[in-house]
Amino acid sequence: MSANDVRYDSAALSDRGRNRPSNEDTVGRSDESGVYLVCDGMGGAAAGEVASSMAAAEVLRLLSRRAESGAAPIEDRIKQAIRTANETIYSRSQEDFHLNGMGTTLVGLVTEGRRVLVFNVGDSRCYRLRRLHLEQISLDHSLVEEQVRMGRMTHAEALRSPMRNIITRALGTQPTVEPDLFELVAEAGDIFLLCSDGLTGEIPDALLESMLGADLPLDQLCASVVNAANEAGGHDNITCLLVRTGG
User: For 2-39, what is each residue's pLDDT tens digit?
Assistant: First the structure.
């Protein structure tokens, strides 16, 4: 099998958790196109659900149309898709006062053979499990995590901070937004986890590493970690999307 013939398979599970009346997370995925997304919406009433579903649908649609994109590099296509989704959500929020202020996080990855592009806006995360070692790939756009990266706060302080839920970047809340991009080379057996903070807020990375290392089908792994997040409190919506690199 050549590098361009690498296969990926995926599974996903999203749950509203134990304390929220509805689920404002959205999953977008296409094994055929190699595009995978998780969005976590925010806003009053149903606005968060509207924002996350709009973002996932628009970015998935645009990134799945690769043949129509000509020779544009994948990085440019990702950035343009996110800008377009941001403009669409922002315009909708300005037109409908019921949706004013809505927004959503976004984390995703696109595959091109063994090349993997990870991108994010907000605090939904991407991890990679390789040879039973879990590594966070994305960087949270949150107030406390940025303070940690600047050395002004420890990880322990960040976990206890009353500001831990404040994000510094989101789709739809401002006229423009820029994602972070990370380029990786996948190996056979790699598992990528895309998730909302309803998962990572309940399960520490060490436990996630242990759970994802179990020899189970992807759909059962999704169920096990979502169930664990609910057992730990389920304070927020919980979404788990797993993508595995074939041999």
Answer: 456 899 999 999 999 999 999 999 999 999 999 999 99
Q: Which residues contact 170 (CB under 8 A, 6 or more apart)?
A: 42, 103, 104, 105, 121, 122, 141, 177
The two three-digit tokens of residue 168, written as one number: 């510094």
Q: Report residue 54 CA to chain centroid gap.
A: 14
Angle, nearest 10°, between helix axes 205-212 and 218-231? Answer: 150
Position 125, amino acid: R
Q: Is the pTM of this model over 0.85?
A: yes
Phi-psi region of 234 (alpha: psi -120 to 50; beta: other; left: phi over 0): left
CB-count exposure of residue 15 (10 Å: 0-12, 13-18, 19+):
buried
Q: Locate the domains of the chain by residue range.
A: 3-245
Is residue 106 a contact partner of residue 124, using CB atoms and an 8 Å limit? yes
d(CA 78, CA 16): 28
What kind of fold does domain 3-245 have according to CATH?
Phosphatase 2c; domain 1 (3.60.40)
Q: Burial of 59 by CB count in 10 Å (0-12 exposed, 13-18 middle, 19+ buried)?
A: buried
Enclosing H/E stretch for 247: none
